[in-house]
Write a structure and sequence with these properties.
de novo design (two linked rop proteins); single chain; 6 helices; 176 residues; 69% helix
Amino acid sequence: MATELEDLKILQVVEEVVDNLWEEVSRWDEFSRSVIGMQMARSADSIGANIAEAYGRFHYGEKIQFMYYARGSLFETKYWINRSAARKLLTEQQSRNYARQLSEIARQLNKFVKSLKQQKLNTHILRKSPIDYHIADETVLFTLTDFEWLANFTRGSESPTTSLQSPASTKESTHD
């Protein structure tokens, strides 16, 4: 796998194709450039831009999503190539060559996404082993009687607080 963005083979292929498209569009008349050429150049450049953004993302889900954006831009570019050929801005041969190159890039994008999904499946999540918590004071906070009272209280019985005495009143009663 490439360690630098510029080392990605798929990005290198995309850059070559979109630069060739740019050169072609730059020779068109102003009307054709502004109507079709700008759209085609933007969608073509977006293929590489989304691949680059995918490369820079940390999470597999984000990487895959941006690869799908690149794929969407690729098909938009194919659409504009078809429109350019229909309007005689590109020859049939040029149109077929670009379509073939973009189809190959689409296959590479699909393989790249598949490899990202596989990497995600093979990633092992590192977790610390569970910690055993030891309680030094094991004094029981609630007795079974307390829980029975709570169950009865929720059914409408009398509150036991009327029979409770504070620690101070207990001390007073022992000194009598």
